[in-house]
Amino acid sequence: MKNIRKSIVVCGMAALMFAGQGCKDVLDEKIISGVGNDYMNTAKGFEDGVKAAYSSLRFYYGTQQGLTMSEYGTDIYATGADGGYKGFHFYDGQLNPTVDYLATTWDELYKGINTCNAVIERAPNVPGVADNVKKLRIAEAKFLRGHYYYLLHQQYGGVDLYFNETVEPTKETKRATDAEMYAAIIKDLSDAVTDLEAKAQSSDYGRATKPHAQALLAKVYLAKGYSSEKAADDFTKAADLLKEVSTKYGYKLLDDFSAVFDENNQNHSEVVFAVQYTTDALTNGTGNSLHLYFGMQYDVQPGMKRDVYWGRPFKRLRPTEYLLNTVFADRVNDSRYKKTFRDTWLSNNPGTYNAASFDDSKTKVTFAAGDTAIFIPGYEMTKEVRATKKYQVLVPSKYSEALFPTLQKFFDSKRPDMTYEPGSRDYYVVRLADVYLMLAEALLQTGDKAGAAEAINMVRYRAGWPGKKDKMLIDAKDLTMETIIEERARELAGEQTRWVDLKRWGLLVERVKKYNPQASAIQAYHVLRPIPQTQIDRSAKTSDGKSVFPQNTGY
């Protein structure tokens, strides 16, 4: 479904404002659309409306906005040298209700919700669309609406639940309780599970199918199982759903961990649900930009200059010592350190240079094109050994906010030039390894340690070096929640899961304080983001002048 356009406007929905959605003064806003309101009441318009409902996924997944709200300020990632929005790393006064990412994320997710509402409400009266197709499209819309409300709930807590198409601005808003949020999300996703196609991928790749909804519903049950709204069977329900996803649809782990992120083979057997991007600038929107944010400052070092292959290093996120030295401590049996981080740069700017300041073992270096220019061994190689190398060696004691092991999962060599930012790689929202790890977590919480070990060992066995795979297996008696916490960091580093994982487990504050000294200001209330000030200002006022939409505690 590569023809989804982020800019698509249907029935005025993309310009539509809830209280606080996207305009400076909602009462003065004129709702203008390039597409007539009746267009969606046609067969073609209805199908385009469903496609438009997917487009808000592109705002959160594979973007700086989504990355900022899902990986910044965790136990595994700290701030790099450049960039803004560092309040999300530091949990200081920079994280406040006026930050634009909070408002734009809120607005875009509600835009997607309203598009879904329009699809669901209008479907019965659209001519020329078979009833079975309408049923399927409504199921897709419910999957997406549940998805958007899940993202809003995890970030902001209770929000305003809308289930009808909004066609004009309103100041009448209210915050749902956690119980109401979970009930609404679970109902939407359960309906989607019932009515979506029971196959791994749609013939129109990118559309939601039953296992996609099952995986997301399982993630919701996991979150609920740790929350104040927990029920005794939440983890059992999650486990049952995840067992189906992992066994009934033909998904298969790739043999090599690094192959998961091969940009030339993106639609493979491990992908459960992906958000699609493309090389077509007309339909790609802002693209998948994750290739920008994890890179170190290689491009000013001797022997190197910036190019498309080595990437454009924005230096937004730097791995914590905990990620490098504890999570990835085993590099003898486990291949994932080597395959997760780029550790070698080959010269693309040959010549003779003064050696880089980070390597004091030599004064001059000379490189031919293709020679190793920089190597990161991952351990403290002695000065004497470094002196024997013709290349520059960056050791851990010289890591900085500009120089560090570089996550290589998202590099994009298909960009037309070295300054081009929109990437074309699909973003994997759920892949099979994540399903196995969630299954291990759910089973552990039900007391089934043997089943949990079997699930986690599927991921660990794949990750082992040839000849070392059996050494990766964990005995059930040794499996703890800490095992799963670290395994998710190893397998999913950088994949927009960590902040929500820590929040789900109730460990965000504890682990950030323990493993990320930069973020020592974090407080208990930071498990929720600030409600955007625009939402509060544009909501109705009580008799004493206060907004009917209250701010989260602490902000």
Automatic annotation (TrEMBL):
<dbReference type="InterPro" id="IPR011990">
    <property type="entry name" value="TPR-like_helical_dom_sf"/>
</dbReference>
<comment type="similarity">
    <text>Belongs to the SusD family.</text>
</comment>
<feature type="domain" description="SusD-like N-terminal">
    <location>
        <begin position="88"/>
        <end position="222"/>
    </location>
</feature>
<feature type="domain" description="RagB/SusD">
    <location>
        <begin position="270"/>
        <end position="539"/>
    </location>
</feature>
<dbReference type="InterPro" id="IPR012944">
    <property type="entry name" value="SusD_RagB_dom"/>
</dbReference>
<keyword id="KW-0732">Signal</keyword>
<dbReference type="Pfam" id="PF14322">
    <property type="entry name" value="SusD-like_3"/>
</dbReference>
<keyword id="KW-0472">Membrane</keyword>
<dbReference type="InterPro" id="IPR033985">
    <property type="entry name" value="SusD-like_N"/>
</dbReference>
<protein>
    <submittedName>
        <fullName>RagB/SusD domain-containing protein</fullName>
    </submittedName>
</protein>
<dbReference type="Pfam" id="PF07980">
    <property type="entry name" value="SusD_RagB"/>
</dbReference>
<feature type="region of interest" description="Disordered">
    <location>
        <begin position="536"/>
        <end position="555"/>
    </location>
</feature>
<keyword id="KW-0998">Cell outer membrane</keyword>
<dbReference type="GO" id="GO:0009279">
    <property type="term" value="C:cell outer membrane"/>
</dbReference>
